[in-house]
Design brief:
The strands form five sheets. This protein has a six-stranded mixed sheet with strand order 12-17-16-15-13-14, sandwiched between helices. Strands 4-3-2-1-11 form a five-stranded parallel sheet. The chain has a four-stranded parallel sheet with strand order 18-19-20-21, with helices on one face. By secondary structure, it is of the alpha/beta class. Helix 3 links the parallel strand 1 and strand 2. The protein has 25 helices and 21 strands. InterPro entries: Cellulose_Degrad_GH3 (IPR051915), GH (IPR017853), Glyco_hydro_3_AS (IPR019800), Glyco_hydro_3_C (IPR002772), Glyco_hydro_3_C_sf (IPR036881), Glyco_hydro_3_N (IPR001764), Glyco_hydro_3_N_sf (IPR036962). Keywords: Glycosidase, Hydrolase. Belongs to the glycosyl hydrolase 3 family. This is Beta-glucosidase.
Length: 766
């Protein structure tokens, strides 16, 4: 005769998932249901709390460990202890333990730390990212957790945002291609798997979480937890598509965003959470709140908490990352249900979704850690995968000052090299935020290989490597003794709001360190950052080569593999690289797009510098003429193939005496932007009307003495003419540009590169 426990449908692993869900739901009290909707942090978790409050989920925040440098087995002991407490409750519903494994299992000492998403976006390698997901799943499962809060599929629209490095790209199509992390983490569902229904392949996989729904990367001024001001059409076009790809792969959970959409907080937005995500898109998993997100629904934070609970749960939040004040959450939600302010049907829907994921994930059959996986944490295979990811993520921005002299790859048998900079031998800086701690740390914080370690390992036995965190006067004075220098600079670790940055200047005087060395020693600059940073004109002018390494993680050998020539550079820019922060936000779909380096920019070691285009005779019959004060229409630009060429006239407005004093000398009326916008579509002659030399962007390029293709006035135009202020007889210009007469003018003054050079005269010493 079957016991009562054996007759429970929900305990039968062979029963359909939906039958198990409904059977268990029918047996649950209100307290047990609300417990399942509650996620708490490990520091407030005890076995008694789990058993008596029927807690559904536990997590650890960044930097919350059983103890510092706890081994995976220590984590497994802790999590299994929590799980045994859950199994001892009346219905024996297992907890689901979640962790921010956002670039590998980054909270666990000794785990493989992969490049952050911004670097993975540069690889454009969907299969690599799927394999990274599979490796991460093993390392998460090995320490007992079941759920990784990844991937972040935000579209990065402004690099001022402190979560920029969590994004794959600014471009929705690129992000969509790289959502394969979901299939890596969860396993790949069969073709017949219903869209939007949770999926998990087996015990070597973990529940994934697409985040942060939706529009978090598009906030005004790049402010974390800010307001994304876009139409629904643009929300659908820019921010929503990656979620569709995640749903098609059976992503089991979605995390709501702290941010707002047109002033409406996402955590209380019924239209987006319920009507769009759950009803229209058919998502059958559960929506998890972000950390203390309900507290942020009121001003000041944490006030009127009962109402915050009501509006978020009614909007469609299924599980709440409380994470500390769980007693208050449980009390308030219980009271809201009993008063009818939160319908029981809403509670049942939330719990049904949570149970569905737990059954799909196999937690009822295999609730405890599979200790046979412990050896996968930081294993050689995973570190080699990390090394491959680093190699493929590096973006070469400059290679040599001259056409026939590429600087890379470096000579590994050079007699003596200088390695310097704040980031050359700092594993914490190399890994960035969300590594061991929420905001990241400095130093040898885990097991890994720094850039300096990798350089020492790859160079010849006879090569002397001199390392100085900051270049000494002694080394600079003996600069002739160095074959070259490698200078590594960049950002210090940060996370979320701590990373919001309106200036984006390389910290620790990074630009000064680079130029100080580069003025004396041929220099490769390696930039560690979670986003594009200001690249000073002198940096690009003085250095021989520049590489963006993003935040590569623990496997620094991947950098040495490429800069010394064992592998080619493969990375492409995942975002547009601005010239000036005043241009931000700057995205490739903008009407006026004038970046320093465009989206998808790549440069190979042997690439020559941009060609300095020679003037071509303009003898065709049809042209577009844009006069000062008028602007090229979208219609004309769209039909650009119909024009043989364009003549774009820009310049100064009239002035006299003191009214004309000008410290910037930038072409007014967005003149440079107008020129490049037209020149990208139509062969263009630029005519500059001015009473003096003006800034011809970029001011730091010595007539293209830099090996890259930069969107500039010079690079895009076919010809440039200075017409000064010619007066009433404009026919004289036509006479020359159409070939009836030759150009005869000579510059009456020196034309500066940068306004900082002024005054600049031919009799100057420099």
């Amino acid at each position: 005769m079957e016991s009562k426990e054996e007759s429970c449908v929900y305990r039968n692993p062979d029963a359909p998932v939906e039958a198990r869900v409904q059977d268990l739901l029918s047996r649950m009290s209100l307290a047990e249901k609300i417990g399942q909707m509650t996620q708490i942090e490990r520091v407030v978790t005890t076995r008694t709390v789990i058993t008596n409050s029927f807690i559904g989920s536990v997590l650890n925040g960044g930097g919350s460990w059983p103890f510092e440098d706890a081994m995976p087995s220590d984590w497994a002991d802790m999590i299994d202890g929590y799980q045994n407490a859950a199994l001892a409750s009346r219905l024996g519903i297992p907890i689901i333990y979640g962790i921010d494994a956002v670039h590998g299992n980054n909270n666990v000492y000794g785990a493989t730390i992969l490049p952050h998403n911004i670097g993975l976006g540069a690889t454009r390698d969907a299969d690599l990212i799927r394999r990274i997901g599979a490796a991460t799943a093993l390392e998460v499962r090995a320490m007992g957790a079941h759920w990784a809060f990844a991937p972040c599929v935000a579209a990065l629209r402004n690099p001022r945002w402190g979560r920029s490095y969590e994004c794959y790209s600014e471009d929705a199509n690129t992000i969509c291609e790289l959502t394969t992390l979901v299939s890596g983490l969860q396993g790949e569902p069969p073709k017949e798997h219903p869209n939007g229904y949770p999926f998990l392949a087996g015990r070597n996989n973990v529940v994934a979480c697409a985040k942060h729904f939706v529009g978090d990367g598009g906030t005004e001024n790049g402010t974390n937890e800010g307001n994304t001001i876009v139409s629904f059409e643009d929300l659908e076009r820019i921010h929503l598509p990656p979620y569709l790809n995640c749903l098609s792969q059976g992503v089991s959970t979605v995390m709501a965003s702290y941010s707002s959409w047109n002033g409406s907080k996402l955590h209380s937005n019924y239209f987006l959470l319920t009507e769009l995500l759950k009803q229209k898109l058919g998502f059958k998993g559960f929506i998890i709140s972000d950390w203390e997100a309900l507290d942020r629904l009121s001003e000041p934070f944490g006030s009127n908490y009962r109402n915050c609970v009501k509006i978020s749960i009614n909007a469609g939040i299924d599980m709440v990352m409380v994470p500390f004040k769980y007693e208050r959450f449980i009390h308030d939600l219980t009271d809201l249900v009993q008063s009818g302010e939160v319908p029981m049907a809403r509670i049942d829907d939330a719990v049904e979704r949570i149970l569905r994921v737990k059954f799909v994930a196999g937690l009822f059959e295999h609730p405890l850690t599979d200790r046979s996986l412990l050896g996968t944490v930081g294993c050689t295979e995973h570190r080699e995968l990390g090394r491959e990811a680093v190699r493929k993520s590096l973006v070469l921005l400059k290679n040599g000052k001259h056409v026939d002299k590429p600087f890379l790859p470096l000579d590994r048998n050079a007699k003596r090299i200088l390695v310097t900079g704040t980031h050359a031998d700092d594993l914490g800086y190399q890994c960035g935020g969300w590594t061991k701690a929420w905001f990241g740390l400095s130093g040898r914080i885990t097991i890994g290989t720094t850039l300096l370690d990798a350089i020492k390992a790859i160079v010849g036995d006879q090569t002397e490597v001199i390392y100085e965190k900051y270049p000494s006067e002694e080394s600079l004075a003996s600069s002739e003794g160095f074959s070259y220098a490698i200078v590594a600079v960049g950002e210090s670790p940060y996370a979320e709001t701590l990373g919001d940055n309106s200036e984006l200047i390389i910290p620790f005087n990074g630009s000064d360190i680079v130029t100080t060395v580069a003025e004396r020693i041929p220099t490769l600059m390696i930039l560690f950052s979670g986003r594009p940073m200001v690249l000073e004109p002198t940096v690009l002018e003085k250095t021989e080569a520049v590489v963006s390494a993003w935040l590569p993680g623990s496997e620094g050998q991947g950098m040495a593999d490429v800069i010394f020539g064992d592998y080619d550079f493969e990375g492409k820019l995942p975002v547009s690289w601005f010239k000036r922060v005043e241009q931000l936000p700057l995205n490739a779909d903008a009407d006026l797009y004038d970046p320093l380096f465009p989206l998808s920019f790549e440069l190979e070691e042997a690439d020559a510098q941009p060609k300095n285009k020679k003037n071509k005779a303009l003898k065709l019959s049809t042209c577009a003429i844009v006069a000062v004060g008028e602007y090229p229409s979208e219609e004309s630009l769209a039909s650009s193939e119909g024009f043989s060429y364009a003549i774009v006239a820009v310049g100064e407005s009239p002035y006299a005496e003191t009214l004309g004093d000008n410290s910037e000398l930038i072409i007014p009326f967005n003149g440079s932007d107008i020129v490049t916008t037209v020149a990208e579509r139509v062969p263009t002659l630029m005519i500059l009307f001015s009473g003096r030399p003006m800034v011809l962007e970029p001011t730091y390029l010595e007539y293209f003495q830099i090996s890259c293709c930069i969107t500039t006035v010079f690079e895009k135009t076919e010809a440039v003419v200075s017409a000064w202020l010619p007066g009433s007889e404009g026919q004289g210009m036509d006479d020359v540009i159409f070939g009836d007469y030759d150009f005869e003018g000579k510059l009456p003054v020196s034309w500066f590169k940068r306004v900082e050079q002024l005054p600049l005269n031919a009799d100057a010493n420099l």
